[in-house]
Structure formats: structure tokens, C-alpha cells
Amino acid sequence: MLSENEVIRHCDLDKINCFLQSPNNGLMRKLENLVGKYGTPVEINARAAEAGKVENLVKRLRDMDSPYLPDLEWLIKIRDKGAFISLGDYRAQIAKACEKEGVPFHQEINESNAVTLEISAFQYFPWLIEEAKQAIDKKEIMPGRYIRVRKMKEQEHDNGDIMAVRAAMNIIGASGVETLDTKGTDGSNVHLGGPDTITGYFGGIGQPNEHPLLWVDEFLYYYTNYGVREVLNISPGTVLAAFMLYRLGVDIKFKISVFMGNDNAFSVLWTLMMARMLSRPDGSTPLIGFNISNSVNRATLLSMGEVRRQLGFENQVRIEHHVTETYRAIVRQPYNRRDDLVEAAALYPNISAKHEGGEPETEMTREHSSSILDYFRDKPEIESSGDMKHLLRNYLDKHASVNATAEALTKRGIGFIAATRLHNR
Questions:
Q1: Nearest to residue 215, comparing CAs of 202, 199, 193, 231?
Q2: Residue 100's Cα: distance from chain center in Å?
Q3: What's the CA gap between 259 and 202, in Å, rounded?
């Protein structure tokens, strides 16, 4: 039983509500005025829905004679032919391998705790086509969730890459998250530079000064023009702004980045308390998941799952855990949290297995192992340096890690969420 000192008093909640509704609240008035630039929330959501329709995206690609259109049409054709392995055949494939190896196989699959297979970072549309061709050839699984960290303006002006990716996610039945350009790495955080300014990251990448409103503005632009609905969120200010934007009626969805540093159950409690207090009257929240810190151990992962369960967000908010990380420039290697992920998934639903790198033993053999720093390079520079083939290889190594997790989950009797329109039952 909580004591009086451990509960939130109604009078304190009343003060917060009074502040939010006050005409003298400059922060909320600025947010409302910004939304007004794009129309009413109903108009904004309608524009986004229309912009995100596959037929409209394909038409825009055709009108601009995009080189990505033939591959997109191939993807539709090959999907409709049923070229990708079914989930039933995949499980039979794993069962046969287990029998050959003399190891146990769970015939009953726990679908209620199915883990979302996630890959990051999916930077360029052609990578998806190469991944799909390999998946068909080797009878592999395509992820159900794709995270992008490519500069928004660059992909927007790259022959319609942003539209090809949006259409592809719908075609294959996967969700996709974009990372907006408005953040401290754009020069606004005066502490950030090269490795010599690493202490500038101690407070996170940051969204300094007026950046929360600029972030909302950027989101509304891509939402209404391309149907980009799910975005990454990296700071408390933009998290709160996104909560309020949703309360105003705009159907934003966001996931919290690993850079937020949710590395203990108390930080998860804080995040989900805000999600609960700022949910819509129907109880829904724009928060669809958060990447917990790479430092989180198994016990804390389970504790986070219990906090989420008690606050009633199991079906709405994913716990997204890195199974692998890029081999360079982010964590100490070897890093592989697959065992922890599988143990948590056996007890809690709605968990995402994020694959940011290949298997460490594979990465160490590569001429160019994966690096988080490659995410911030410009495409022309990557091409001129001859590194695009290396980065594609790194991406396909991540795809291999996705499939290693799919196999581990299947052997444990736990389902997974792959690209739903490619892998039928």
C-alpha cells in the first residue's frame, strides 16, 4: 500500500492542467499556432493518409521517372506470386534442422508473445531489393520493422527514395521509422563536434532552444507530404511535444531512441507515467516503443516489462532491445543480447528485437565492419569512396542476424512478427 507521500495528489494534477490550459502558457500556444499552419488536425491527418497511399506514391514516382519504380513494381509482382517462404514452411525447415542436430524443437508456438523482428539502419531503397532477393533465394525471413537514420532532405531529393521506401513498407507489410534531421547533431548543440567533443553527448544528442518546435514542424512537413507517421524521438522536450501534438488530434507515432538512456526500470516508469497522463480519452498513446539502453541486463529488462504491464501499456508500447550493435563506434564488442531477448519474450509480449549490426564473429572478418558513423555520411561521398558495396554487405549481415534471432525464437517456441504481406501462414 502506497503512503500519502508516494501518490500524486489531485491538487498537483489540477495545477498541471491549469498551466496547460492557461492562455498565458506560451509553450502550448506556440505549438497550437504551429499546427495551425498546416490546418486542423482532421485536415492534417487526411492529407497524410492521402499522401501515404501506395497508388499515390507510385504515381509520383512514375511522374518523376524514378529509377526506383521498376524495383518497386518487381516487389509487388514477386510478393503476389508468393515467392517468399511461408511461416509454416520456415518452421518446418527449423524443425528438420533440429531433428538432424538431435536438439529439441517446440511444436507449439506462443504467438501471443511474438517478437517483432527489427533491422536498423535501412538507409537506401535498393538495399531492400537486395535483401528481398536473398531472402527468396535462401528461404529467409524479412523483418517486420525497419528503422532509418538517413538524412531526410537527402532521401527526399534522391530520385524519390523517401516515397519508394514508404510504398515498400506498405507493400511488404512492415512498419518503418524515420529519424528527422532536427536534432543537436545539426550544429545547434554547441558542444557537439567530432570525437574530441564527446562530453557533449553526456546530456544526450539534444534538442536545444527552439528545436522542439522545429522538430514538430519538420514532422508535420513529412507527415503531410509523404505520409511519414512514425519517427524517432531523442529528448524529453520533443517527447513531451509529441505527446501534446497527439492530444491536439494529430496522429503522430514515435519511438524513443536508445540515446535517451532508458537504462533502468525507474526511467521506464517515468516515461510511461507521462504516456498515461497524456493519453487521449480513449487511453491511446503516440508512444509505440522505446529502445532501452544497451547496458540493460536481463533482470532489469524483466522489471521494465512488469512496469509496462502494471500501467496497461503492454499492447501499445514495445520494449525494443538491441540484439546486436554496429561493430564500431557505439559499444564494446562482442555485443550480443539474443539470449536476454528470448528470455524476456518468453514472459512478456510486444517486444522488439533490434538488429543494428551483424554477428560479432562475422563482423570481425569484414574488410569494412559496420560503424554507427556511416549513418551520418552523405551518399555522394560514400559512392565516391567506393564504400557503398561495404555498407550493403554490412546491412545484409544485419539481415543474417535477424534470421538468427528468428531461428532462436522458433526453437524456443516463441513466435515472431516478420513482413506480414510476404510471409503468410
A1: 231
A2: 36
A3: 10
User: Could you write out the DSSP letters of every residue in 344-399?
Assistant: HHTT-SSEEEEE-S--HHHHTT-SS--BGGGGGS-HHHHHHHT-HHHHHHHHHHHH
187-201 burial, b at 16+ Cβ within 10 Å, e below that, comes to ebbeebeeeeeeebe
Per-residue pLDDT band at 319 (split at 50, 70, 90): very high
User: What is the separation of C-alpha 277 from the centre of its chain, rounded to a whole number of angstroms?
Assistant: 23
Provide the b/e sequence for 256-265 (b: ≥16 CB within 10 Å): bbbbbebbbb
The DSSP secondary structure of 190-256, one letter per residue, reads: TT-SSGGGGGGGTT-S---TTHHHHHHHHHHHHHHHH---EEEE-SHHHHHHHHHHHHTT---EEEE
Residue 159 φ/ψ region, left for φ over 0, alpha for ψ in the -120 to 50 degree band, beta for the rest? left
Tell me the backbone φ, ψ of residue 288, rounded to 5 degrees.
-105, -10
d(CA 243, CA 347): 29
**Separation between Cα atoms, residue 184 and residue 190, nearest integer Å:** 8
Q: What is the per-residue pLDDT across 219-259, written as a single tens digit (0 to 9) for each?
A: 999 999 999 999 999 999 999 999 999 999 999 999 999 88
Residue 260 DSSP label: G
Residues ≥6 apart with Cβ < 8 Å to 149 = 120, 121, 123, 179, 232, 375
C-beta of residue 294 within 8 angstroms of C-beta of residue 332: no
- Whether 302 and 347 have beta carbons less than 8 Å apart is answered as yes
Q: In this structure, are residues 377 and 77 in contact, taking their beta carbons and an 8 Å threshold?
A: no
Which pLDDT score is estimated for 188? Answer: 84
Residue found by looking up cell 525507474 in the block: 266
- Contact between 202 and 189 under an 8 Å Cβ cutoff? The reply is no
Three-state SS at 146: strand
Greatest CA separation for the chain:
71
